[in-house]
Amino acid sequence: MEADDLNAPLGQTKKQSRLPKLPVAAPQVLAGVLGAAGLVVVLWAAFVNDPLGGEPLAVVATKSAGPAADGAAGDGKEHSRYDGDPGKKAAAEKAAEPPPGSKTVTIIDGSSGKSTDVVIPGTGSEAGSPAPKLPATKSTGGGEPKLLETSRHGAIPKVGVDGAKAFTVYAKPRNLSAALKDMPRIAIIIGGMGISASGTAEAFAKLPGPVTFALAPYATDVSKLAERARSEDHEVLLQAPMEPFDYPDNDPGPQTLLTSVTAEQNVDRLQWLMSRMQGYVGIVSYMGARFTAAEQALSPVLNETAKRGLIFVDSGASNRSVASQIAGSQNLPFAKADIVLDTVPTAADIDRALSRLEMLARDGGTAVGFATAQPNTIARIAEWAAKIEKRGFVLVPISMAVNKAKSS
What we know:
By secondary structure, the protein is α/β, with parallel strands linked by helices. It has a domain of 252 residues: Glycoside hydrolase/deacetylase (TIM Barrel), CATH 3.20.20.370. 32% of the residues lie in helices and 16% in strands. The chain contains 13 helices and 13 strands. Strands 5, 6, 7, 8, 9, 10, 11, 12 and 13 form a nine-stranded parallel sheet that branches. A two-stranded antiparallel ribbon has the order 1-2.
């Protein structure tokens, strides 16, 4: 026992000794660690042979096109390969030239830094080469070659040199008997074809030829769908996505026509949409409540539609649409959907919408209904269409329900 313990008051223990202070402060320790890390980086850069500094690499397997790969001895003596024949040498040099449109890619070795140029052969269709000619058959989605022209996006419709237009060439008019000619006409458009696989299959299986199919430009194999539709006597429309009021929260899809871009940009977008397939009689708007109400934005689009020999159908997204006024001033064949049949997609509501469509046709002589390619909608329309003539109406394709353009 130490002497201090004898002198300490009862009930008290000896105070614990304090921890020794560090010779340096914590910030100084941190600074030292960072400095050491920086020194390691500097030493790595100075002594490690990595000319790309760790940049990610892509390794490409290529074949050499040089003389050695062609069977030469590799000594650089070309005379041994051509046997002194200048003609053979010239022919070989010409054959070795890359085809038009070829591109040279430089590949860098990550370990040595050595660069190698590799030629990727072109097809002759790149910039600077003649544009490929359209085929002389109907392989371009069923389109007539005389009604097609090449744009930067692909083949798009045009008016033929003889004045032929897609609107009339691709139409599937009904040959109505005398009894049917006097009946009120009803046209039904089924939109969104190609988006819902089940709905698309149901439409092809159950709907009669006079029903018009509107194909979405984003559908898989949209060209084949257009060809099939025409082969089964359906007229085809191309759906063009247009800006709704709640855009971009509600986005119709890529290449949507917008009020916020220039007329040239919208025409270019429209041509992209037009190039997705061929064989259609016209354009139908998809959404587009804001776009179809904006005359400055819509007018160039309808002008382009008329220029291409097509019709325009307003799907009825907005009561404020000015499409009918613009179409009249531009001599453009035009129609507007009077009723969207499956706004409420129940059987009872679809049946009521079809009844209202009949009333409009009876009053005006012609009425147009628009619906989506959903199985329930298809089933109701198919059952209604089977009895339409017994009720005193005739089902016609959209080309027989448009306001025709005046003769120029």
